[in-house]
Structures are given as C-alpha cells and as structure tokens.
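retry 2 of 3: previous attempt timed out while embedding iron/sulfur cluster. Reduced batch size to 1 and resubmitted. Inputs unchanged:
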Amino acid sequence: MNPGLYIHIPFCRRKCAYCGFFSRAGLTAEMQAAYAKALLQEASFVSRSEYGGAVVKPETLYIGGGTPSLLPVDFYADLLEALSEFFDFSNLREATFEANPEGLSEDYLRGLYQHTPIRRLSIGIQSFFDEDLKRLNRGHTGQEAVQAVENARKSGFENLSVDLIFGLYDKEPQSRWKENLARLAELSVPHFSAYALTVEPGTLLAKQLEKGMVRIADEVLLEKEYLYLQQFARETGYEAYEISNFARAGKYAVHNTNYWRARPYVGLGASAHSFFGNRRVWNASDLTAYVTDPVGSRQGETLSEKDLYHEYVMTALRTVWGVEEENLRRFPPSLQADFARQAERQCRLGNLEPTPKGYRVPDSRRFLTDGIAVEFF
Ligand code: SF4
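retry 2 succeeded.
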C-alpha cells in the first residue's frame, strides 16, 4: 500500500496563544539549510530501513507545521527535487501545503504552483475578526485572510481548505462564531476544518486563563456552537465527514482520511510521526537534536492488537463512515465480540446508529464522540 508522506516544518513567525504544536520562532538561514539536510538524511534512512532502498511512491504529500509558508518557494522546490531520489512524486493523488495568511502573496503562491507539485492549500484563518486574531496572538488580520484566499485562486489553486476556531468567548460576543461562518460561506471554499479552542499546558492561553485574564467557552457553549456549525454545514452544502472536517462533494482530504483509516504514512522532520502497519515511529520534538542526528532522534513502539483496535475505534467513530465490520475483521474474535457488546449498549443509549457497513455516531451526538469512544476501551 502506498504510504502518505508528511513533512513537518517546525518554524513560525511567533507563537499563537493556544498553540501546542511543535514549532519555533526565530528561523535563520543556517537553520533552514541544516533542516533541509536533516530531512534528506532521514528520508535516506527511511528508504533503506523501511522500503529496502526502493523508491517509494507516496499517494499523498502533506507539508505541515509550524508555518510552511514562512519559508521561500526555492526551499521546497530544492527539497522536493532532492527527495525525489527516495520518493516518486509523479503520481500524487493529493499534495497539500499549510499556509498562514501573512505573506501569502500572489507571487509566492504562483511560484509554489509552478515549481512544486503542490495543488491544495490549507490556510490557517481561525477568525475573520481582528479582535479575535489579536486575542489568539495570530500574525495576520481578517482582511489579509480574505486576500490570501483571493491570491490563492488567482495563482491557480482551486483546492482550498480553511481552518477556523470556535469557543473563543464565554459570553458576548457569541454571535461572532455565526458571523465567522457567514464570512466563510462567502469564500465558498471546497473544504474547511473547525476546531474547538482547547487549552494546551504551557501555552500563553493556559497562563492567561490561570491569571483570570481571559475566559473561554465551557463545554455547554462549545456544544451549542458545534450544533450551529453542523446546521451551517447542512444548509451550505458541506458534508460533515469527520468531527472537525467539512467538505463539498468529492473534496474530502485524502491524506487525513488515510490517517483515520489507519493507512501507513511516513513522517519526516522534528516531532513528525510515522505509522507502518503495527509500528509507530516518532522523532524528538527538539530542533537541535533533530538537525544534529535526525536518525538518532527516532523512537518507536510496536502496537498491540488492543492498541490498534482502540486507535481504530477512536478515529473511525469520529468519521461519517464510522466503524466498519469489514475493518473490524482484522482484529481477534475476542475484540470483535467486545465491540459488538458495547455497540449494542451504545445503540440503546442513542450514542450509535447502524449503517449498512457497521456503526457510527449519529450527527446529534457527534460532538460527544470522544466520550462515547472511551466506552469501548
Ligand atoms: S501558526 Fe500554527 S503552528 Fe505556528 S504558532 Fe500558530 S498555531 Fe502554532
């Protein structure tokens, strides 16, 4: 099975208030060069150790971060050319690039389109309102976000996704979420992701909350905003195909859908994860350690049948396809029986509904999916 290829770019201009991803500010030219070299070293190692030195044909490519759009187009053109010694990019089903609106000029995007196989952009907008963006310590304005989408289209990118965040406020202005979705509708992008604001330890947001400087939505309000999101998606022709992902017909994110379906993927870069059937491998979340010895910073574990089953149930229940009997068959009969018992109970409680192929969480309970999935562990 052809894997997905993920490349992590751990650099950002500044740290957003809520961000728990691995990324660093203060990128230098030396670090950029050292990072490219480390990515190639790691790719060479993965090609030899996992694929016997054969050139791998990834089904999808995803360049994420961090802020990939912080680095020049030349970096990616050179990197992908060098990586072609190990990966054949000629038959990609999807090639996605994460970008932030700041600096996403027509020139930059035209270059990306012309000099790389990237054809899909995932733009981190989060909100169209400057007050929200300031609160989140984002590096762009609402107007720049709209402009970035326009620039993308003018440069040839039609396959666009936008990220938004809800749950920013505990009280007023709650209608802001509705207004954000109304602005999103005007952009008419084929795909968007919407995430509840979560508090990661050690972030600026965690500190602000601790000191009582800000207040954010509680679970009750989050659920209300999520239900509105589902209503919005229905009314505007987006399919809620995963708890946080919404697509127009045929515009599902292929790379991410493969994660949820437990397909193999190779992750290159600091903090990146790989998955090879029953083995998970990850790199240190430490830039210096990674560029000094990218192979040495790798760690791994073999997942038990039970781990794989839990992971499958957890991710599958978040999707519109749910848990499919055909996929369950790869687990031992005892785990299949456990699933059947619990599924029957959850159906009685209204937390699951049968589908032609298995079971899924009904739309009305989708926001509660993680709590429902835990019942299967
Ligand atoms: S741009 Fe993304 S990765 Fe960078 S700090 Fe903000 S949320 Fe984190």
